[in-house]
Amino acid sequence: MRRRTVLTVPFAVALAGAAARPAAAAGAPASSATAASPAARALAGRVEELLGQLTLDEKISLLHQWQPAIPRLGMKAFRTGTEALHGLAWLGPATVFPQAVGLGSTWNPELIEQVGSAVGDEVRGLQHERPPGWGLNVWSPTVQLLRDPRWGRNEEGYSEDPYLTGVISTAYAKGLSGGDPDHLKTAPLVKHFLANNNEIRRDQTSSDIRPRIYREYEEPAYKAAISADAACGVMTAYNLVNGRPCTVTDLNGSVRTWTDRALMNVTDAWAPNNLPATGSQKYFDTLAEADAAILKAGLDSFTTDDANPANTVAAVNTALKEGLLAESDIDTAVRHILDIRFRLGEFDEGGGPYGHIGKSVIDSPEHRRLARRAATEAVVLLKNEGGALPLEARGLRKVAVLGPLADTLYADWYSGELPYKVTPLAGIRKRLGAGATVTSSEGVDRIALKNAATGAYVTAGTGAAGAALKETTGEPGETAHFDLFGWGQGVVTLRSAANGKVVGLRDADGGGPEGNQFFNDQEQPNGWFVSQLFKLEEQSDGTVLLRYSGYENWFGEEVYLRARPADGVLVLGPAAGASRYTREVVRDGTQEAVALARDADRVVVVVGSMPFINSRETDDREDMGLAETQSALIKAVLAANPDTVVVVENSYPTTLTWEQEHVPALVWTTHAGQETGTALADILFGDADPSGRLTQTWYRTEDDLPSILEYDNIKYERTYQYFKGEVLYPFGHGLSYTTFRYGRPKAVRGGIEVAVTNTGRRTGTEVVQLYTRQRSSRVKQPLKKLQAFRKLTLKPGQTRTVTLPLSRDALAHWDVTRSRWVVERSTYEIMVGSSAGDIRGRTTLDIEGETVPPRDLSRTTRAENFDDYEGVRLVDETKPRGTAVGAESARAWLLFADADLRSGARRLTARVAKESAGDGAVEVRLGAPDGRLAGRATVASTGSRYTYQEVTATLSGAARRQDVCLVFTEGVRLATFSLR
Question: Keyword set for this entry (predicted)?
């Protein structure tokens, strides 16, 4: 029988600590005392003094990303936006840590703070050189929640859970900023605010975020690092939220209320240009209107037009002349910018407390060790059947390391340049030393492409620079050989055997298809448009067409390779003139791998993604499985040698259903940086216990997910909090090489106490996770909700009792009937375990909270505060602020549950708009959308979506306590209503 605890008094506030819950429901910002300190007051005085010395033109010049020097005041040039997602990026060799999703998988905020501090040091390391693109304002961490594993930028976030995301992002930002309340090592920004988890049409799609989703799910992820004064502002997202572009979403009423410190908020790159009539969003007529709205919304810096500020300066000046802005609006933004620059030490002797840091910190021995530790703790053991892992190095005679990622490390768009590479093959070879033979094959085919009509072969150049691909007659040998890498859905890359370089498109001569040639000169697929992609399209006669499949197609139609008649150089053109090739297999990669597997004692197959190909910024995933060629390789190798371990190295959950059923051991890691191979060897051979845990639900199929554009986790049952189906791996999942026993959890002052014992024979690490579930509620509640966690390392037989912090406020949810947080009177289930799907101990708490009263619809009620809906979109009530509900179908409806109509409501009064011509209607129905009609109001066209009118209707029979539905017709926008 479970222990039942009755709790009639509030918990003590959760103990402070790296893994303590960020206060989601608290009203006061965490930093209020700091902001009122003598140092903060002195800083404000310095800012005001410098602001007073700037001319209006100088102030306007500071609003652009590239802020010019002002020599007369001793101000150097300043730039916002150094990329530092998992290391210093785009500025040469630097320590590369695991991708952000891998950092999250460590579940170790103390470690992540150290990583952030190291990255901050490396950003500072270039301060004396100040290369182009460098600056002390860093655009990291990314805190968008990973609610949909198909999102192209999944690698950039930490978790699908707001609490875990808040903890990890706060730790990383604290490391970046230095943790000093008065000085900044760097000035990190969290991005991208708000609710952006789709790349498809990302500058045109609108995310519907109703109040509960915003308050309970979205806001905590962004709020955590800012309310802790670890981050210094936000970058707004490209998308719209509730019909309003994020670039002009009101930050003064949201983000700036989370702290008393000055924040410097910035737009995303080129986003201001989306707003006017000439852009994709067409939200304003002119750029002047748009830029004025941006500043009034609480942003301070325009990231647009690269290094050219002319358009921004002209638009702001026009806005001033037209009365859209006052100089005080400019002063507000510049005040925020100067505050950050002062705190960075720019105007202090020697550059402040961090001014001494030099370039020697970049890729230092200490940072290399930290990179190895982070990569090791990011590894997740998904499956381990029959003790397949760890591998026993002693006695191993021969190991085969196979697969397309066995001997390579890939960078991503926001990676730094790897200073060195320890591949999985290199890591395993080093670990085994001379005592064992390690063989390897990438398991990919080496092919030649022969023109079926002429007999000429496609050839590449030798040497590092390669050459333009062309058709050559005769027997060209190795220059005609290409390694064929499959990345799924038919997409392949070609690597020249002549020089080991990847083939990509280059505009060699300028203009038109004839000028676009292909060179074997790239280390890996890369670039914003990733021009190294092809598809080999099978034809009925057995030949193939070589179709260009890069991310950018300049020609308006599908284009194919063909030999230019004059010189045989391959150029692009329509399918009608494409060269037809026979594909000759020079080496069968699968058979080579199988032969090595048969001859090995143990096999490690390393498969996964290429970050520039398999989803990335601007490109969402459509297929959640492994590439077909990789799946086939695993099956063939496993058939040849059942002692096979599979390592999956990618940036997101993958539908490994066959592999989970058949492969003895599965290991997952993200692209983990320069020490990937060392970390994998540490885990595979048991030198470290696997301590990584999944930060997302791994679904069995993409069919378990709604459209990527559906943002309502509650209604569409997304993430571990609401998904009711069978999962492949649950949130928080990860195995150890030992076993753990949990004691019975009990409530103590400050949280929940539980004893954990290592019951195995090896030292191991467990991530103890605390979840809650509210058993009864007025509204649909999460199935589970992560409230705290603790990472423990225990020796065999060792027991530790830990207290997982839990406050009464953490049990609150957003009450839409009164627009405030509420802790309901209910029984709350307390669950501790090693994942959301592996609960080891339970107890219950009876909380003497509130009983939410029935709705009082006689008061003016915002339409967005509904309980259920169909056929509607959330839309912008006005351009500056407010959310209305727009009907998208002939009978759209909103349900307002448990309304107390008392002795009877006699009149509907609604504030509505209707841009389209003709009349619409709003109906009041009782009990259900098709329930009894109580009244109907006619809505005439207002000619504008932003012009509202008040309509009324007489009601009959609207009495007692019951659900009320508003049913309204397509084109009607409903802002508020009342039933009196």
Answer: Hydrolase, Signal
